[in-house]
Amino acid sequence: MKLFGQISAGTIARTACLALALTNQILSATGHPVLPIEDSQLETLVTTGFTVAASLAAWWKNNSFTAAALIGDEQMAAARSAANTGR
């Protein structure tokens, strides 16, 4: 039985992040801070995290701005669709 072979890496990563966030929240609520961070450090960490996440998303995703690039995206989608349907 290939249970873990069917689960995507994204699902595993999101689940792990959720588990860490929930653990951190529970520990913080019970008065056991996981990371002793000051407010200014927290602000810097959060804004840096958003910047890194936005940068990685922009770098990874196909960002087509020109008309030629948009037409190319449509042709690629059509070719992938045709390949998936066996045409």
SS element count, helices: 4
Average pLDDT, to the nearest integer? 79
DSSP strand content: under 5%
First and last CA, distance = 32 Å
Radius of gyration: 21 Å
**How many distinct beta strands?**
0
Shape: elongated
Write up what this structure looks like.
The chain is mainly α and 87 residues long. It is 76% helix and 0% strand. The longest helix has 22 residues, at 39-60. It is elongated and about 55 Å long.
Write the layout of secondary structure elements.
Layout: H1 3-6, H2 9-29, H3 39-60, H4 67-85
Short descriptors:
87 residues; mainly alpha; 4 helices; 76% helix; 0% strand
Describe what is shown at a glance.
It is built from four helices and no strands. The chain is mainly alpha-helical.
